[in-house]
Amino acid sequence: MKQLLPPIWLGTLLLAGVAQAQDAAGEQRYAPCASCHGDAAQGDQAQGAPRLNHLSAVYITAQLEKFSAGQRGGADASPQAQAMAAMARTLPDEQAMLEVAVYISALDSPASPATVAGDPALGADYYRQLCGACHAAGAVGNKALHSPRLAGSDDWYLQAQLEAFRSGQRGAHPDDRTGRQMRAMAATLPDDQAVRNVVAYLRELAEPAE
Amino acid sequence: MRKLILSFAAIALLAAGYYLGSNRQAEPTVIRVPAQPKAEFASSGGAEVTTATSAPLRSLTTPTSGEVILVRDGESIQDAVAAASPGAVIKVMPGTYKETVYIDKDNITLSGVIEQGKYPVLEGEGVRNDAILYSGNGTTIENFYITHYKGNGVMGQAGNNFVIRNNVVVDTGVYGIFPQLGKNGIVSHNILSGIEDAAIYIGMSDNVDVVFNQVFESVAGIEIENSRTALVEANYVYNNTGGILAFVTPGLPIKTCGDVIIRNNFVIDNNHENFAIPGSIVANIPPGTGMLIMACDDVVIERNIITGNDSVGIIFTDFSLATNIPNDPESEPNPNRPKLLDNIMRDNGNSPAPVVRAFLAAQLETRGPDIVDTVGMDDGCINHRERYRTFGLDKYTECDIDTTANVPSYTLAEPVPPRGLENVDIGKLTYYGVCAGCHAYGTRMIGPPTQVIQALYMDDPAGIAAYAAKPVKKRDDYPEMPPQGHLDEETLLAAAEFLLKLKN
């Protein structure tokens, strides 16, 4: 038993070393992203760059792949999304995307201030009836359905994305299956006021700013 | 005689003086002695019923062929159903049967044998979804003790001419007795408790009598939903969250609810905590609700004893109680033409639930009323309105009828034919009869809305069919979908194709 200890210890050290190396790689890969998304991936509304650090690494990776493959940020997309697609293509492979995603999801920051005026009670009604079937109670997301966490997202970004889905700017690419799913649901919101109501409800679910 | 009239007049004057002196009461009590009998009740759904007056009341029975199959403890009821021919009587001896029974043949009588209080027990062990599912026509299910299923005690799936009676249903999950899409049926003398949605749920059906049942400790006691010509009579309904409900769920494929008579029931102390799945429609029922009529038309509420319901005796409301989303253009959100006839109401509204308290605060009241109409209908009527504490009934008139006694039953004397065997879209029938039990179009019922399923699967009906046959749990806050593998692949695929094309 005693004889076995050193190798295990060594193995743990090695693994920790690998993790540290990955962290370091992730940090390095994130450096260019920080100019828009901020040091803590807290987002910057002025540049149209959303908060990212509340999202899961799996979801961030999936979106980086979509940007890289042209499923997001294509010719019809917003200038910010097109810029993001160009940035995503600077990451050489899936491993690099995973590294940066893991790094981002370990960061933290308070939720950004509320900027969208809507009726959260009406939004909650809508959310519970429809959105919650995929994004889950509390808008924490559901990995089994590939749906992201929405609680903690910038309200201005959620509004912009719902509008982009509704107009077909996002979720129109034939290979973007989850995007097309979301586009179909975004289209069921009766009007822009309903969009604002749902967003106002989601903003209420963000963790309180410290 | 003259003296009597005079004293009536004096009392009326006194009463008028009292009421004029108080600023809360708008109208003085008017004492009237009817001069002539009122009109006879005419139900738009009663035409085919009242023509068959010569038949004995509720004479509907399942035809039998003389074939009898005996099932003993340790044997399988499903094996007996498989061996049975239409017209067979399957007698099930006392014992414990851990199975789900599917009846897809016509004219099957599934009849428990009760010996000295010992029932045949259908035991779900908390893992099986349904105790008995029938899709055959002319089904009788009687004398069972059904417990610990996750979904339904007894569910009918588009079977007509059904009789469900004398069963005890305890702690069986979502629905206790649930005939869906059935015409002509009787639900009587059952005892139900511990159901987290509706204990007795008449869904998208016609010509059903729900009579002489005991229903308690469930979220919704008796629920008439998207159905027409239903009689709810002589039931003992107590300590549920809501006692008797008649309503439209928006987003179901059959859009209307109407011609419901709720008569001679005991609706007592329905103050149970609401233990429905959060987010489902019935999760919105305020504890302490005697009767709730949401968007259902031509409901007659007659001679019930409604006491001790802590929020409100009877509430008429529109969809806004359940949701503010205007998501089904084909469902009319308001109730219409209610008739309130001589109910006995006492002791209601003593401790209103928060949502009712908020409504009352706007009226400067703290105690819940006997009757409230949140819509303020202008086509309702009420007899003896002075007896009740009411809100929102200002536009109600005196009813032109006194009783619905001329409609003793809404069941039909002659069995109706099976629901379209030829030219019927099997996908549509399956969606209506099976899927719509839990999935509404843009409304959350038990499962995710159909609209969400459409968005997820888009042009992939095979994906839906495969999932339905062998579901896996994906959503923490929804119950797990029960496998539908007893339906063949062709049927599942057809239902999925129909589902994807649905518009509301």
TrEMBL record, chain A:
GO MF entries: electron transfer activity; heme binding; iron ion binding
Keywords, in A-Z order: Electron transport, Heme, Iron, Metal-binding, Periplasm, Signal, Transport
Signal peptide span: 1-21
One GO CC term on file: periplasmic space
Domain Cytochrome c positions: 21-108, 118-206
Post-translational modifications: Binds 2 heme c groups covalently per subunit.
Localization: Periplasm
Superkingdom in the source lineage: Bacteria
Keyword Signal: yes
InterPro entries cross-referenced by the UniProt entry: Cyt_c-like_dom, Cyt_c-like_dom_sf, Cytochrome_c4-like, Cytochrome_c_Oxidase_Subunit
Protein's recorded name: C-type cytochrome
TrEMBL record, chain B:
Keyword Zinc: no
Superkingdom of the organism of origin: Bacteria
Keyword Oxidoreductase in annotation: yes
Keywords attached to this entry: Heme, Iron, Metal-binding, Oxidoreductase, Peroxidase, Repeat
Molecular function via GO: electron transfer activity; heme binding; metal ion binding; peroxidase activity
Limits of the Cytochrome c domain: 422-503
Signal peptide bounds: none
PROSITE patterns reported in the protein's UniProt record: CYTC
PANTHER family, per database record: F-BOX ONLY PROTEIN, F-BOX ONLY PROTEIN 10
NCBIfam families: beta_helix_1
Protein's recorded name: Cytochrome-c peroxidase
Organism name: Mangrovimicrobium sediminis
